[in-house]
Amino acid sequence: MLKATKDAMPGFFKHIVVVNDTVPHNARSTFFNERCCLYEDPRILLSVDDQYLHLTGIYFQSFKYFQGMRKELTSYLKEANISNLPGSDKNTFVTCLHIRRGDFLKYGLAASDAVFIKTALEFIKKREKKNKKPRKVTVIFGDDLKFMKSLYNGSVTSNEPQGQNATHFISQNSPSDDLVYSKNNCDVVFISAPHSTFGWWLGYFSKGDKVYYMDIRVTNDKSYINGDLHEMDYYLPHWIPLRLSADNQTIIQSNRII
């Protein structure tokens, strides 16, 4: 994990020191952020005067821990030139779709659904129609190649020759290369599995900083139902939640309650 993180964000390690050792015997555990996706104010730690601050928390998955740092964190990403996927330029508008199924289906987390994906992408296309770039392409990222290929006929994987008329592409690049691609090319991102950590970072680092996601409040996601994820702590305020309307056919934008 440390090696993969250094590969993806080498600039981050200029600011921290990682010590591969056991926890000092005199370090007392401090209970903090014990649920994955809820923000807990770090100022409560100011009262701890122990020599070591040994936190018990998991994941710390809230943008509020690094609010206002998007530009700085994006600069920590490695530099790479991804040439096997279409790039965003003056002629090409890139919509990036992230899917996740696999373990999400197994463990009761909200997984990507083909019908919702296609309907939502049509909604996003209409919402973004003000963009006048003549070429519109969709690049798909995810953990289930068979599912991704089934979404759109004629989809081209990144390790195949690109067809001149292709409009849908499937990344088979490394996770770190996908993040760099998003930074340089994703004009819009749609996160179809709303609890996906990688989907979240793909949106966070994206070129256009325009992110849509499936509204987790209308899913049966186990973590959300159990109270381990708070929507306002997890998704950035300008990100746009989507859900099906009462007819189960029409995509609408959900209201966010602060």
TrEMBL record:
Keyword Protein transport assigned: no
Stretches of the chain forming a coiled coil according to its record: none
The entry's keywords: Glycosyltransferase, Transferase
InterPro entries: Alpha-1-2_FucT, Glyco_trans_11
Signal peptide start-end: none
Protein's GO biological process: carbohydrate metabolic process
GO molecular function term, any single one: galactoside 2-alpha-L-fucosyltransferase activity
Recorded GO CC terms: membrane
Record protein name field: L-Fucosyltransferase
Organism: Caenorhabditis latens
